[in-house]
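User: Can you predict the 3D structure for this chain?
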Amino acid sequence: MSVRRLFPMLSTESLGRALDFYEGLLGGVQTFRFPEQGPPSFVALRLGESELGLGAIGSGPALHGQPLRPAQGHRIELCVYVDDVDATVERLRAAAVPVVLEPVDQPWGERVAYVSDPDGNLVMLTR
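Assistant: Here is the predicted structure, written as C-alpha cells:
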C-alpha cells in the first residue's frame, strides 16, 4: 500500500473567519463546498499546489462520531511556502492576524515566521 495524497482537514469554530484567513488573506481558491447552496459546513481550498479542508464545528454530527473541537495548544502546524515572508507577515498583520514569531533567517537557509489562524493553529510562513 502506498499513500496517494495527503489532504489535511481542520475543524473550525467559525468557518467564515477561517475562510477570511485561508481564502481571503492567503489566496486559497474554493474547489468544493458543501452544501452548494446556503451557508457551507465544509469547504475545500486549493492553495498553490496543495489543498486544505475546513469544517465547521457544530454543523451536525461528524461522520466518525467523535466530537469536533479546535486544536488547543500546539497540536498542528501548517507550513505555507510564500514568495516573500516579510511582505506576507506585514499583509497579515495589517489584517489583525496575530504574529507569533517575526521573520527570521534560519541556519538551514530558510526565512521563517509564524502566525496564528483564527482557531489558534500555528501557521509557519517560509520561502
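DSSP finds two helices and eight strands in the chain. The chain has a mean pLDDT of 89.
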